[in-house]
TrEMBL record:
Residues 21-49 are annotated as: Disordered. It comes from Persicimonas caeni. This is DUF5683 domain-containing protein. Keywords: Signal. Residues 1-24 form the signal peptide.
Length: 325
């Protein structure tokens, strides 16, 4: 029996020694209360290079509530100096960057890091107010907490902002004083006659200030009327002393008929051009024409200190015809 017991003990010891290396290579279990840290893969974004394109991308990110993209998008465009040529773009970029920094500060647990992020946000908001002291954030567009922080920055720096406003008011006042100049405004009103639209020879067009149309209608009607009168004169010249044609020194009846046709054609053309001119004049007719011009010196009627009240006058000239008072 002793031999069997010894054999069993040796077998147990051998099995224990064989298992010892495997146990030694087994990693120790983690301490209680310790959570393994998982490292998130670094996100890579294909951001544009141009500042304007970055601002447009940031605006879209703001609309999509992707606040974590605002800082990497806009910080390179504002640090160390602004890369925006227009003030409006810079103000928009600083506002969105401030929003991104503010929300980033809400996520961090380290108090010192959170304070640095909020201080950077305040600096960007102060730069906005230094450029535009009366600038404000729309509470319907931006989060209420961001608007409150912006207004807090305004109150904290109220004295500095008041000085900036005063300096700008003084500068604007000096510029206005240096460029101050008296200007006299002369206003002339020409009242047009409605009856002039029915006058021949383009007078309706001349009244409306349409010199080219008036000249064309005047020339066409004059030529048509001239043809009518000339044809009548030729008909009468062909008539003999006895009042008949084809006798004595008079012309033939055929010639007289030809000239009578020309007479009717001239009359028809005159009536046609006259009707056309009336329609054209009525289409472009305006009851009055107002002319305003600036003068460096007072007009002659005011230089003597008295108003010139001559009443209504009827004028006809190259500029048209009408009644002025």
């Amino acid at each position: 029996m002793f031999q069997r017991l010894s054999t069993s003990v040796l077998f147990v010891l051998g099995a224990a020694l064989w298992a010892t290396p495997s146990l030694a290579q087994t990693p120790p279990p983690p301490d209680e209360g310790t959570t393994p840290v998982k490292t998130a893969p670094t996100a890579e974004h294909d951001f544009p290079e141009a500042p304007k394109a970055r601002l447009e991308r940031a605006q879209k990110a703001f609309q999509d509530a992707e606040y974590d993209l605002l800082r990497p998008l806009l910080e390179p465009t504002l640090s160390p100096t602004s890369q925006f040529a227009q003030t409006e773009s810079e103000l928009e970029a600083r506002t969105l960057l401030g929003v991104g920094l503010y929300f980033e500060a809400q996520k961090v647990t380290d108090a010192e890091q959170r304070r640095e992020l909020l201080d950077t946000t305040r600096r960007h908001f102060l730069e906005i107010l230094r450029k535009e002291p009366d600038h404000s954030l729309n509470p319907l567009l931006y989060p209420a907490s961001v608007v409150e922080l912006f207004e807090a920055v305004r109150e904290e720096n109220a004295e500095e902002l008041d000085k900036i406003r005063a300096q700008r008011d003084d500068a604007n006042g000096d510029v206005a004083a240096q460029g101050l100049k008296s200007i006299y405004i002369q206003r002339e009103v020409d009242h047009r006659l409605y009856a002039a639209n029915f006058l021949p020879f383009g007078l309706g067009q001349f009244q409306n200030g349409e010199q080219v149309q008036g000249t064309l209608f005047a020339g066409a009607q004059t030529a048509a009327l001239g043809l009518n009168v000339a044809s009548y004169v030729m008909i009468e010249s062909l008539r003999g002393d006895d009042g008949y044609y084809d006798r004595g020194a008079g012309g033939t009846t055929e010639q007289a008929l030809q000239w009578r046709t020309a007479q009717y054609v001239g009359l028809g053309l005159f009536v046609g051009f006259y009707a056309w001119s009336v329609i054209d004049a009525l289409r472009d007719y305006e009851p009055y024409d107002v002319r305003i011009r600036s003068l460096d010196e007072p007009p002659p009627e005011l230089s003597a200190g008295e108003a010139d009240d001559k009443g209504a006058t009827f004028q006809i000239g190259l500029g048209g015809l009408g009644v002025t008072w």
